[in-house]
C-alpha cells in the first residue's frame, strides 16, 4: 500500500516536477501518521467480531470510530499530492503508469491476498474463514482491507487519463473534476453485487485524491503543511466520506 502510493518514478511520470522534486519531510511525516492510524485501525477491527474484538462501549472502539474519517482520507490525499509532483502530460505515459501501479498494487493484491486467504482458512481461531470457492472473488470484489489496493489502482488510472488528455492542467478544470467526482459519489449507488474492483471505494476516495492533487499544483505557494490537514476537514470531503451506509466491506 505504501509503495504504491509513493513518489513517482521515471517509468510512470510524464510531466515536469511539481512543487517539490524531492521528498518533503512534512508530507513524509503525515504519511507516517496515516499509516500508523490505518494499522491501529486494523488491529482494533471494524466491529466486535474482528481484530481485538473490542466491544461497542470499549475505549478502543471509541478511538477507532473517532478516527474513521481521518485514516484513509488522509492517506489518499497524500497519494494525490505525491502523484501531482510529476503528473502525466500525454497519453504516452499511460503505459508506464499502468506498469508501475500494476507492480506496486496489483501484484501485492495477488500475493498478499492469496496468503491472507490461505491463512484465514488454515489457522485455527481466525475471525473469518472463507470458503474455498470464494478465492476468485478476492481479486474481483472487495476483500478485507485489500479493497484499498483495488480502489487506489483505479483512481491512479482515472486521474492519469484525465491528466494525459489535459483535463486537469488548469485549476478551473481540476475544480470541475472535483465537483464531478463529488456528484458521482452522491448519485451513483454501488450495490454489493456490483462492487467490482471496489468501485464504491473509488467513488468515495477519488475526491480526496483530487484534493491532494490540487493542493500540490494549484494551492498558493508557501503555505504550511497544516493546509493539508485542514483539507481533510473540508465540508465537501466530510459530506462525501461520512455516508457510512455506503462504505465498502472492511472500510477502515
Describe this protein's structure:
The protein has nine helices and no strands. Helix 1 packs antiparallel against helix 3, helix 6 packs antiparallel against helix 7 and helix 7 packs antiparallel against helix 8. The radius of gyration is 18 Å and the shape is globular. About 0% of the residues have low confidence. The chain has about 250 residues and is mainly alpha-helical.
Helix share, percent: 55-70%
- Given helix and strand content, the structural type is mainly alpha
- How large a portion of the residues is in β-strands, by DSSP E? under 5%
* Tally of separate helices: 9
Main sheet attributes: strand count, strand direction, barrel closure: none
Counted beta strands: 0
Q: What's the order of the H and E elements?
A: HHHHHHHHH
- Average of the residue pLDDT scores: 80
Return residue spans where pLDDT drops below 50 for at least 5 consecutive residues.
Answer: 244-249
Radius of gyration from the alpha-carbon trace, in angstroms: 18 Å
Provide tags for this entry.
globular, mainly alpha, single chain, 55% helix, 252 residues
Summed up:
Helix content is 55%, strand content 0%. It has 252 residues and is mostly helical.
Secondary-structure map:
Layout: H1 25-44, H2 59-66, H3 71-83, H4 94-122, H5 147-164, H6 171-187, H7 199-218, H8 226-232, H9 235-241
Helix pairs in contact: 1-3, 3-7, 4-5, 5-7, 6-7, 7-8
Amino acid at each position: 500500500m505504501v509503495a504504491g502510493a509513493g513518489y513517482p518514478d521515471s517509468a510512470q511520470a510524464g510531466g515536469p516536477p511539481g512543487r517539490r522534486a524531492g521528498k518533503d519531510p512534512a508530507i513524509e511525516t503525515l504519511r507516517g501518521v496515516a499509516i500508523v492510524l490505518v494499522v491501529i485501525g486494523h488491529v482494533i477491527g471494524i466491529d466486535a467480531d474482528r481484530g481485538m474484538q473490542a466491544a461497542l462501549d470499549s475505549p478502543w472502539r471509541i478511538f477507532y470510530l473517532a478516527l474513521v474519517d481521518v485514516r484513509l482520507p488522509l492517506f489518499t490525499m497524500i497519494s494525490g499530492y505525491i502523484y501531482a509532483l510529476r503528473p502525466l502530460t500525454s497519453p504516452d505515459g499511460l503505459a508506464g503508469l499502468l506498469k508501475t501501479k500494476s507492480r506496486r498494487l496489483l501484484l501485492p493484491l495477488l500475493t498478499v491476498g492469496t496468503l491472507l486467504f490461505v491463512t484465514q482458512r488454515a489457522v485455527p481461531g481466525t475471525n473469518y474463514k472463507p470458503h474455498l470457492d470464494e478465492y476468485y472473488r478476492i481479486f474481483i470484489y472487495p476483500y478485507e482491507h485489500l479493497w484499498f489496493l483495488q480502489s487506489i489502482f483505479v483512481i491512479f488510472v482515472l486521474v492519469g487519463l484525465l491528466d494525459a488528455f489535459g483535463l486537469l492542467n488548469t485549476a478551473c478544470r481540476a475544480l470541475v473534476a472535483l465537483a464531478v467526482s463529488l456528484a458521482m459519489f452522491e448519485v451513483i449507488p454501488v450495490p454489493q453485487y456490483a462492487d467490482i474492483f471496489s468501485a464504491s471505494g473509488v467513488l468515495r476516495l477519488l475526491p480526496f485524491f483530487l484534493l491532494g492533487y490540487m493542493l500540490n499544483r494549484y494551492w498558493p505557494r508557501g503555505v504550511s503543511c497544516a493546509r493539508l490537514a485542514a483539507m481533510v476537514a473540508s465540508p465537501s470531503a466530510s459530506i462525501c466520506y461520512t455516508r457510512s451506509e455506503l462504505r465498502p466491506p472492511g472500510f477502515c
